[in-house]
Amino acid sequence: MPRVFLTHSPDMLRNYYGERAVAALRELAEVVINPTGRVLDAEALIAHGQGCEIVVSDRQTPGFAAFFERAPALVAFLRCAVDIRNVDVAAASRNGILVTRATPGFAASVAELGLGLIIDLARGITDAVAAYRSGRAPEARIGRQLKGATLGIIGYGVIGQHLAGIASAIGMTVLASDPYKTIDEPGVRQVSFEDLLARSDFVVCLAVATEETENLMNALAFARMKPTAFFINLSRGNLVDEPALAAALDSKTIAGAAMDVGRGQDQMPSLDLARRPDVLATPHAAGLTPDAIEHQAFDTVAQVRALCAGEIPPHAVNAEAATRLSRLRKGGSR
User: Fold this and answer.
1) Quick check: 178 and 190 in contact, CB under 8 A?
2) Given this model, what pLDDT does residue 160 score?
3) 3-state helix/strand/coil string of 125-175
4) What is the pTM for the complete model shown?
């Protein structure tokens, strides 16, 4: 049986992998779990991953070039997440190591939290609850009805598609902007980025984080929004120019914001924004449901199973460069 190293710290193991997936992995391999209780740096990953043919990595643990260059037994580096921006795929390829990713099984969970944030922004639920819990009677304020309001979705991937279906079902007008797709779905109108910002009552950012989308939501973008509109970020903090968002909130250029991500540690919302009374923030928890985390964890279990069977696993990103795979086919490298 190959040796598999799980990089997850205790909270990441509990919240983003789960006991069932660990048990399934143990049926296929000798499993070694990160013993440090913390996120691993390069030297710790090198030390604790020695002798393991397969690493299953949480999103907080990078795929360091130094690790790939100093892990002679390593055959495959499996990321238990979709995002592999902090994995040095080029270094892995130079050393013949396979890199894989998981599929996005969190679309429903993220879209549902997004809808919850939209409802809260529209009706002031958090403000009322906070007042009551502090012993004060809140002011009854007029809210916003979602039926008839316009939702703008930036980036029409699996989460955006799921959210669009929910929004259409409750009577919202749905606009979507995605330069890489042709959207032809009932109830969804494809528009330009600028048009979406100008027309939407709720703007939800779901674009993929790339160099091209860095600070996509900047001062100019916020200036294009209605002063009565709300901005919601469910993608990555990299897409938002945070000083520009703060300035837009200060000047009432937009009505408020909500975010599950930001430029804090592990993509958490930044405290300077999260503590504002005109911001709703959750701690990067949109995909934190058993259904969502097990989907990605079991993706990595399936990948280990394929490797043990001498097959290229699903969702490999550099299969053509993975020259060490034959070691597992021959029964391991040790």
Assistant:
1) yes
2) 97
3) HHHHHHHHHCCCCCCCCCCCCCCCCEEEEECCCHHHHHHHHHHHHCCCEEE
4) 0.85
